[in-house]
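Progress report, Aim 2. The chain analyzed during this reporting quarter is listed below.
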Amino acid sequence: MLIPMMMTMVVNLIYTVLAIGLAVCAVRFIDDKVFTKIDFQDEIKKGNMAAAILLAAMLIFIAIVVSSGLKG
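Predicted structure tokens for the chain:
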């Protein structure tokens, strides 16, 4: 009983790490290809909250899409 539950937890952890990695890669891709004239890292370092909120919203949106895809 304990072993299958542990295996399920390990598999879920692996899926979670993969989903986070995929979401971060997707945000980087969108940053490079779509927003070519805006350097989000530089804007966030300058204190631009709008750039930080936009980047966080993109990450949350991608996480929701990836999460629903992993659930099936």
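The CA atoms of residues 15 and 71 lie 10 Å apart. The chain has a mean pLDDT of 83. These observations will guide the mutagenesis work planned for the next reporting period.
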